[in-house]
Amino acid sequence: MRRPTLDDVAAVAGVSAKTVSNVLLERPHVAAATRARVLAAVEQVGYRVNRAGRGLASGRSGRIAVVVPNLHQPYFAETAERLILELADRGLTSTLRIAPDRQTERDAVRGRTTADADGVIICPHFSVPDALDGAPPARPLVQLGGGASGLVDTVVMGEREGAEAATRHLLDTGRRRLALVWNASPAGAPTGERYEGFVAAHHAHGLEPDPALMVAGSDWDRRASGYEAMTGLLRTGLPFDGVVGVNDAVAVGALRALRRHGVRVPEDVAVTGFDDTDEAGFTVPPLTSVSPETAEMVSIAVDMLLERLGGLATAGRTRRTGAHLVPRASSAAPAD
Asked: Which of 16, 35, 58 is the last residue of a domain?
């Protein structure tokens, strides 16, 4: 069956093929009534835009680079999928780039590995402003997660309030000695907003967190890291009755280590994670986690990128989303 053409649309709309092209390329100076007639004709004949040709005509590819540090961490895998689907809903295609280290992240941000894209949405592990050497990006770029810099558009998740909510939840159920399973960092001690939320919840209860219960594995963001960190803590013999995982991946690893060592969850030790990934609902027991409201973050990030593609030229903007606790069996209150 022959595919409809621009000429077919033009014939139904009663305009020239050039006018149809102008409407599809969203060029100005087309009367509103004419634009509506052309779009109605597009639907009537079933015409589909040739995005390759459209890209050549407009100077754009219609492609957005989605950049994440890895795909083994459930949060990044799920966020990448959400971004790709959201962009598709907005009529854009995607190219996925993995940036596991500082140099590859820098190359993606600066366009060396994303030159085929009109813009970039990145979930950074390192510093986007550092990758740009403090200069504004040369093309539309949105940072999803991480701290605001004022240099690039950034969607900031509720890290502190989420971690505080998880910690407060454990303390409210009567747990008093909480371990923090976190990602190893060059500083050698926990840092960042999730750590600040952990500390703040303790202070609100008149408590001080025990640094001896703050442990990390040798790698970051892996289930094996959580398993390694928890195994090491158990071997110290230090008492604890709750675990706050910096993310779901390490919390899942900690759950396995506890089970393997005969520690009952939640009867002996309650456990929480962060990110509310799909996996959290399928652990044994199901994992209490913090939802950073990823769907909202993704929608905002795509909105900001489309505004930049539309010509918005301002200083880097910041949009903040919230976070809320999703209680499950892993943190149930101990029986009386």
From this structure: 58
